[in-house]
Amino acid sequence: MLLTDRVEIDPAVMLGKPVIRGTRIPVERIIRKLGEGATDADLLHAYPRLAQGDVQAALLCAAENDL
Questions:
Q1: Residues near 25 by Cβ (< 8 Å), separated by ≥ 6?
Q2: Angle formed by the axes of helices 52-65 and 27-35, nearest 10°
């Protein structure tokens, strides 16, 4: 299931948690890291497969789906 153009849920990936499409990076991990004080730049450095739009999509997904 596609939640946004960048976030999907697939029962075969990360136990069906929302992830950035094409990766195994859970939305909740991005949100947790931001909550711990990481910047977008920190995330992009730590997860080279992420794009700036992915971070924004994770925030939007979390807000819209009460994650």
A1: 19, 47, 49, 50, 54
A2: 100
